[in-house]
What we know:
- With 475 residues, the protein is of the alpha/beta class.
- Helices cover 17% and strands 27% of the residues.
- Helix 7 (235-248) runs parallel beside helix 8.
- Mean pLDDT is 91; it is low at 1-6 and 457-463.
- It binds iron/sulfur cluster.
- Residues 25, 27-28, 30-32, 40-42, 45, 91, 142 line the site of iron/sulfur cluster (SF4).
Amino acid sequence: MAETSWHNAHPARLEEQLDDGVVRCHLSPRNCRIRPGQHGFCMVRANRDGRLVSLNYGRSVHATEETIETEAVFHYAPGARILSMGNVGCMLNCDYCHNWKTSQARYIDAKDVYHYTPEQVVDIAKRHGIKVISWTYNDPVVWHEFVVETARLAQQAGITNLYKSAFFISSEAIEELIPVIDIFSVSIKSLDPAYYRKITKGWLEPVLEGTEQVFRAGRHVEVSTLMVTDLSDDEKTARAMAEFVGERLSPQVPTHFVRFHPDYKMTNTIRTPVDRLEHARRIALGMGLQHVYLGNVYDTDSTTTSCHSCGAVQVTRYGLNAHTVGLTSDGLCSTCRTDAHFTLFTETDRRTAVSTLPEPALDVASFSWHGDVRAVHVQVSNASSQTETIYQRRFGDPEVPESWSAILLQPGESFRFIAAKSTPEELGVKVAVPKGCTSSLHEVFDRAHFPTVEAGADSGNSDVTPLPAFVPLAR
Ligand code: SF4
């Protein structure tokens, strides 16, 4: 259930008690010094009666099933379903943030905030056969206590944990993450210290040092950078990124150059021209990186994995969908047996598929891909007192069988999942729900975006952003 208030305090870690009831927070490099009754930069950690508290423990946007490609992770279980968890607040304030409705606590709408316990998160993943929990969206740094506790519980249940972050985080906090997080997907905003200060309100070196720290600890690391039109989509950024990855990490670390869209305070510009991204990729490959990809792009080979030794195709991708076609089960090239630097696991809990819907007739909603909107979050709720089954399928591609995939919902359960365009010919997605269940659709604009705006079914054929317009609050 959505809550009307998320201002409940939970004891926070990484606290330093100073004189006169003042506390210092050591979670991010800001090290905020917080007086009683005040909060830190992120607005979700505060001083209550001389103690540091977390205000967003368990406060989350709706848990959402997505695929691992959503998180700029290409070399770990391609195509795996993940359970994405995002909260409210952030230790940065990037001018272009595409999750600003949830990352900037002052703009949060109570209808978008849900309350989960660690046990509930793990239970959702287990019941839906999801093997990876992803800590993502706004940024997981600022709900550290909830992440660490839930990730530990998930680990005990055999679930992998993925941390997708801008990684402006202290070394001490990283030490608490390393035992419970398997995959780190780090978004490095730029390699220019002045850019960091101006655009993100953070600073660069802790991000680079933190990325090295988790890489040296042996965790699976992938890095990405958002190529902002006319700001950071140039050759200089590509060279600096390749230099960092090649020299301070390893040329084998997958690196993603990600397409930007105008958002938040940065709307007077255009999406990154794809030829600039392709150029950046060529630069990085030419400097010796072995796995360089583009993000938020379609219909390009730059999302395909080919063997860096023999050139054979190993994984094909379209949007947020992936198909492994040329890897052995232990991550070698099927053609030449060279190490492809993959960790693989097989999903055993596939959903049941049916060719026709059961009787009595279900309510069917249809959503057509349009313009740049090629993914949608589908939220389904079961208001009845019995377990119900809802169905979804893609339509429009004559090469793909139009079978319905079944999802079981417990009494009272609300579940959210992504449906992303999976072939160039596909036209859209359909959702069928029985009496007593409801569905709603939310257009997704680029990956790792948590949409807060509900869309109508059968949306028109325009290429308009579905994102809420930014209106500064009056001071
Ligand atoms: S997490 Fe960072 S921004 Fe938030 S209170 Fe702690 S030091 Fe400040």
